[in-house]
Amino acid sequence: MEQQLPWFAAMSAEDRSWVGLVAQAGIASFTEWLRHPTRQPKVFGEVFGTAPRELARKVSLQQTVELVRATHELVESYVAELAAPGDESGLREALLVYSREIAFASAQVYAQAAEARGAWDARLEALVVDAVLRGEADESIASRASALGWPAPDRIVVVVGSRPDTDPETAVSNVHRRARHAHLEVLAGVQSDHLAILLGSVSDPLAVAAEFADEFGKGPVVVGPVVADLRAAVRSAQEAFAAERAVIAWPDAPRLIASADVLPERALDGDAAARQHLVREVYEPLTANPVLLETVGAYLDQGHSLEACARTLYVHPNTVRYRLRRVTEVTGYPPTTSRGAFTLRLALAFGRLGDPA
User: Distance of CA 185 to CAs 200, 247, 302, Å?
Assistant: First the structure.
């Protein structure tokens, strides 16, 4: 076998010993079957039952087929010596029949191994996703994900939405199929009435999430912020779920939406992280330029009227226009749009509530 099968020579001595025992068991079982031809050959137990279960992970199905072929050819080469005169054709036929049984038994071994592996992977994946969603991800989560083939990518996002009208196994399987088609790293799980998807190596979160939008049930599909690793994915999941709960307050929201786009509703719903974000990223930068803070406050208080704001501040309307453009540059929210004005109004309110001055 070492001469015909290069992979066999590369195996450890212990593994080669086990493979040799399997081959010997196959020949012994074949001989026993020839002595009692009316007995149904018990190939599965008599041949493959001698090997440890771990051997199926070290020897692939293709290598097993090569092993069966090599053993078959070896026995067939001795047919003239083994068979009684005139029984050569009968022995060759029996060898073909038995080789068929060996082939079916090999397929059964690897099918059972694949089913067991698939069931174990499904349980492990559910544990990893559940740990992220519950905020209980610790140092062990990386090793668990690695056992699933997760390559520890960066730029991870969590996408959440309602579960589809299928069983959890089918929902997760559909997500994995779509991920393979898109060449994406993915972990998925169903928790209660939600489907959660973890995507790795994401360059454009909304564009990538759009590939999976059809796998969710009715209602919004929310994309959390991009984070560096699985442990940090807890924050992405928390923000995504917070946005999914709060987006009901925005009737015209698109079906696929980033959690950051729902900051006002999240803040009103009691999301402390959203309030802190509005204060830190919107209010505080404006306080660094009191003129901009005064202008945007007056503009909002005057019903979004440039002329009324200019009269209140005793400046030209063009000055107000310039300052409002600067507000957009500083905060990312244009005061001249309804959505931007709503966000700025809440940011100013939460900032003033927390500002002792």
Answer: 5, 28, 50
